[in-house]
Amino acid sequence: MAGGSSKSNAPSARKRVEAETSLLKRARDGSAFARCEECHKDVPVVLIDMHSCSFEAKIKMNLEAQLVEKVNEVKNTKERKNSGSTEPKPKRSKGNKKQKDPNKPKRPLTAFFLFMDEFRKTYKEANPDSKGVATVAKEGGEKWKSMTDEEKKPYIDRATELKAEYEKALESHNVEDAANDEGGSGEELVCEDNDE
């Protein structure tokens, strides 16, 4: 029924304004326009009461003033961009990233991840056919939520021990790294001098 007429798509009947035909102009759709004698514009007859030529003139003047201000703002922003572009900004590339220290100790596991290590083993033994990682994680999360604080205590204690060990290792690594930076910079200069 693509070509059929339906009431929702039918154009609504327009009201015709009755006035002298010599003063009115009609658009193709039948709407009536009257010419304003002050500004010489065609104004819809329905909106003629709200038409104010002096108000429109003020709006035009304001728009022209705003256009002049916008042109000035555009010029100012271009000048700012040009003045700042004399020194090109360094582009970030993948090579400029701070490289990770391979000798830095790894962060310790949290209590939940210590629990999950044990849970995965027991879950795999109980369900050897299950190979979905998401199901194991979901089951582990649900079990962790259902555990009491007393049941979680061994994992929490182990996590605090690992964290203390990590902090000691990190501290000693930072001391060694600082010592290498102070002494290492002189050795690098010597190597550079020898190469030249």
Q: What is this structure's SSE topology?
A:
Layout: E1 24-26, E2 32-35, E3 42-44, H1 53-84, H2 111-126, H3 133-146, H4 149-195
Antiparallel strand pairs: 1-2, 2-3
Structure description:
Mean pLDDT is 74; it is low at 185-196. A hairpin with a 5-residue loop joins strand 1 (24-26) and strand 2. The termini are far apart. Helix 2 packs across helix 3 and helix 2 packs across helix 4 (149-195). A 3-stranded antiparallel beta sheet has the order 1-2-3, with no helix packed on it. The protein has 4 helices and 3 strands, in the order E-E-E-H-H-H-H. By secondary structure, the protein is mainly α. The protein is elongated, with a radius of gyration of 40 Å.
Short description:
The protein is mainly alpha-helical. The protein has helices at 53-84, 111-126, 133-146, 149-195, and strands at residues 24-26, 32-35, 42-44. α2 (111-126) packs across α3 and α2 crosses α4.
Shape: elongated
Give the C-alpha Rg.
40 Å
Largest sheet: 3 strands, antiparallel
Structural class: mainly alpha
Oligomer: single chain
> How would you spell out the order of helices and strands?
EEEHHHH
Strand content: 5-15%
The number of helical elements comes to 4
The largest sheet has its strands arranged as: 1-2-3
- The count of DSSP E runs of length 2 or more, i.e. the number of strands, is 3
Distance between the ends: 88 Å
Assign a percent range to the helix content: 55-70%
Residue-averaged pLDDT: 74
Low-pLDDT sequence parts: 185-196
